[in-house]
Amino acid sequence: MILTGPAISAAIQAGEITIDPYDPARLSPNAYDWRLGDTIRICDGDLDAAVPTAFAEQTIPAAGLVLTPDAFYLGVTLERTGSETYAQLLNGDRTIGALGIWVHVSAPLGHQGHAIRWTLEIRAARPVRIYAGMTFGKLVFLSAFGTTASYQQQDAKYAATDGIDISRLYEENPGGVR
Fold first, then answer.
1. Cα angle value 140/142/146 (rounded, 5°)
2. Whole-angstrom Cα distance, residue 131 to residue 63?
3. Distance from the first to the final alpha carbon of the chain
4. Mean pLDDT of successive 10-residue segments in the chain (178 residues)?
5. b vs e for 8-47, b when ≥16 Cβ sit within 10 Å of the residue's Cβ?
6. Could you give the CA distance from residue 105 to residue 120 in angstroms, rounded to a whole number?
7. Which DSSP letter does residue 4 get?
8. pLDDT of res. 153
9. So what's the pLDDT on residue 123?
10. Helix segments in 22-164, DSSP class H
11. What is the CA radius of gyration of the chain?
12. What is the maximum alpha-carbon separation in the chain?
């Protein structure tokens, strides 16, 4: 089940959900409106699952940054979110979709116990200017059923993520799959 805005607020007050920084005005009927952080990575060259991705990192200037369709970007959420009680789903929203921005299409699930600033996969259909701190999507919280297992306690490659993280599939496929 998806938590309502009031249920998210109550869970924050009870210490069951962390959103930092938290602004109650960003609650919607079934979600929290998350914002884009101030750092972006521009992935360089061809991408290869067997080697770390090369990138250039920059702070998004106050005047904004123009994303172009020929590049692949990794961004980060402004908010650090997490919960040992609830799973999370992070998505873009209609507002940025209408600007031709696709964000975080491949990995929307935040497991119980995953307390992070999310790495965001970002693509632009046309040149579009973005700004640090702008609303970039919706975060929903889901009730989980069954025995819980905190993601932070797992031997998982992204458990310690606290900012932008490149794909680490190369750790599973050193030198490529043979």
1. 160
2. 7
3. 42
4. 96 96 96 97 88 92 97 95 92 92 82 81 96 96 80 62 76 68
5. bbebbeeebbebeebeeebbeeebbbbbbbbbbbbbeeee
6. 9
7. P
8. 62
9. 95
10. 94-97
11. 17
12. 52
Q: Name the amino acid, one letter, at 118.
A: W
| 79 is known as an active-site residue | no
Tokens of 102: 């696709």
- Determine the Cα–Cα distance for residues 67 and 72; give it in Å rounded to an integer: 9
Among the options 16, 57, 84, 121, which is catalytic? Answer: 121
Inter-residue contact 120 to 161 (CB < 8 Å) = no
- β-partners of residue 81 are 19, 116
Amino acid at 100: G
pLDDT for residue 5: 96
pLDDT for res 105: 78
Confirm if 11 and 144 have CB atoms less than 8 A apart. no
Nearest to 43 by CA among 31, 32, 54: 54
CB atoms within 10 A of CB 135: 14
Cβ-based neighbours of 155, under 8 Å, separated by 6 or more? none
Rounded Cα distance between 130 and 43, Å, is 17
Give the pLDDT of residue 178.
56
